[in-house]
Amino acid sequence: MFLQDIYVYPIKSLGGIRLDAAKLEEKGIQFDRRWMLVDREGVFLSQRTLTQMALLQVQLFDDRMEVFEKFQSKNKLQIPFHTHSENLIDVTIWEDTVKGQVVKKEINDWFSEILGLDCRLVLMPESTKRRLKPKYAIHGESVSFADGMPYLIIGQSSLDDLNAKLRVPVPMDRFRPNLVFNGAAPFEEDSWGKVKIGEAVFKVTKPCARCVMTTVDQETGEKGKEPLKTLAAYRTVQNQVMFGQNMLLLEGSQIQVGDKIVPI
């Protein structure tokens, strides 16, 4: 088994970026979901209700991010990494409320115009600790603005198994994994307790429960019924549709595509 793909999603619910190598941190891959869009009440925004967020793509550079609409790449928004305001506000993601650092007004205005609602972009500062639930944590680990866990891994053969049951196959981006591996049987990741990827070691914490975001086409922003409908027919456990495994980092600081994967 080997690591086939690495993905990072700097701004929650916007387009992902494939990497050849990544720096590993407690909260997740470096830059992964460290930014998040919130409404005027500070509640997080996602493709679940705003499917057009799928059409916003992010690029990473040494000192900044760029965001643009996939079909209008000339209108690029520059987001420097180190020029955020000192304005900390309470932001809510699911049952957690933590401090987020508001970025510049002109950046918020750009997103508000594109999405058609008053919203703000916030950064998770290093001082913000969004703790994992005690039943999953080992040493009181924290997570970024990801839904629940720092890392998500899926086997390519698991997607192949699903696509064999679909009339129209879907790409892996419907499931927004951080890590994709190859060379195993479908859903082999379900049996892991710990896994070594290159020199890094991860604890597998729980299966990932899937939602309507998997039905949003990441190229068009259109929502349908698949693949969730088909997946629910054979991957439902206690009324939740499971696909992929959540993980937290135990040791290691770097991974790269091609790394050997060994369950331990």
Automatic annotation (TrEMBL):
Domain of life the protein comes from: Bacteria
Upper lineage: Bacteria, Pseudomonadati, Bacteroidota, Cytophagia, Cytophagales
Native organism: Cecembia calidifontis
Chain ranges of the MOSC domain: 125-264
InterPro entries referenced in this protein's UniProt entry, alphabetically: MoCF_Sase_C, MOCOS_middle, Pyrv_Knase-like_insert_dom_sf
Record protein name field: MOSC domain-containing protein
GO molecular function, one term: molybdenum ion binding
Pfam families linked to this entry: MOSC (PF03473), MOSC_N (PF03476)
